[in-house]
Design goal:
Length: 134
């Protein structure tokens, strides 16, 4: 790291990058068909568009569209074509990155709630101030 660079800037950039990756994963998974495609590939292993279309209640064109979106989000990888056949496989790295981002976010909130709990406990241990009415 360059000496003139603030370490907080690097941490902020890394957090921002992690968040962007998590958003891409969450956006791709908002669609139930894409979740079904991903689940099918995760459970049964690599498959082509035609193989997936035969297992799912959608057309080959719809499968291809959803595969493209999952590839764009980084959730799938396309193998090298074998003629016109391309097999797609799950890449777990983006889901793991999204999980790390969620874990960091949860930890941050846990820390805040712990600080609030300590503050409230301290306040409860102190005698209440008596306010005299005029």
């Amino acid at each position: 790291m360059r000496p003139d660079r603030d370490p907080d800037d690097a941490a902020t950039a890394e957090r921002s990058s992690s968040e962007a990756a998590a958003v891409a994963v969450f956006a791709a998974l908002t669609d139930p068909i894409r979740r079904s495609v991903l689940d099918t590939l995760a459970r049964r292993g690599p498959a082509t568009v035609s193989e997936l279309a035969s297992r799912l209640p959608i057309t080959r064109q719809a499968v291809a569209k959803h595969l493209a979106q999952l590839v764009e989000a980084g959730l799938l990888r396309a193998d090298e074509p074998d003629g016109r056949r391309v097999r797609y496989r799950v890449d777990p790295a983006p889901v793991q990155a999204a999980l790390r981002w969620l874990t960091a976010l949860a930890t941050e909130w846990d820390d805040r709630f712990d600080a609030l709990r300590r503050h409230l406990e301290q306040a409860a241990d102190q005698p209440a101030e008596r306010v005299e009415e005029p």
